[in-house]
Amino acid sequence: MMTVVFVHGVPETGRLWDPLRRHLKAESLALNLPGFSTPRPAGFGATMDDYVRWLSGELRGISGPVDLVGHDWGALLVARVAMLDFLPLRSWAMDVASILHPDYVWHDPAQRWQTSGAGEQWAQTMRGNTTVATAALTAAGVPAEDASGMGAQFDAHMAGCILDLYRSATPNPYAHWGADLTRTAAPGLVIQPLSDPYDDQINSQKVAERLGAHVECLPGQSHWWMLSAPEESAAALLRFWKTVGMDS
How many CA atoms lie within 13 A of 100 on its CB side? Predict the structure, then answer.
């Protein structure tokens, strides 16, 4: 029996996946990144490699084959675990694959978070102020009915982890992980919501080719595709999983 494991991004929690999970007829688990709706563990650096080690540890505790699915930063962690191939995944799926392209330039909010002083000012403005956080998330494209719940989850733990995570990923993730960007042992899927402002379709395709992954386009969907079109998104994953046995 396969287990689907979902990994969220920034600034989210595992609740992000609830609407999509309701459309799956499979056992699933949505993890919370350390510091995201959970306390930040003592001594946890919240760097990109720290989160990869954490995710690897979580997956080792799951018996049976795993279909791993990630969004945003969760997508990058999923890709990294698949690239390193030290865990027996049945399959993996990610979005925003272009962030792993060598030419990727971080978006403006990320550059603010990576800047000393400016990042701390942003965190101070956002945390504890659900109204401000909700407005910022809505402006970024989170569906209005989901933005308030997401904004209410934002706290000092999450803010600090976001700053440390992004500051560990300069100038871009490829500079750190690009040497291992090659075809993965487990079958992979790159999801392309065609209206995602944080992704680039051409470079996403190039990364998918490097990883040997299938590509599934979601026309009319944006960065938070699992919220705006949960049934369609679940169907895309189910189609991919049906091919996994044929690929392996």
Answer: 30
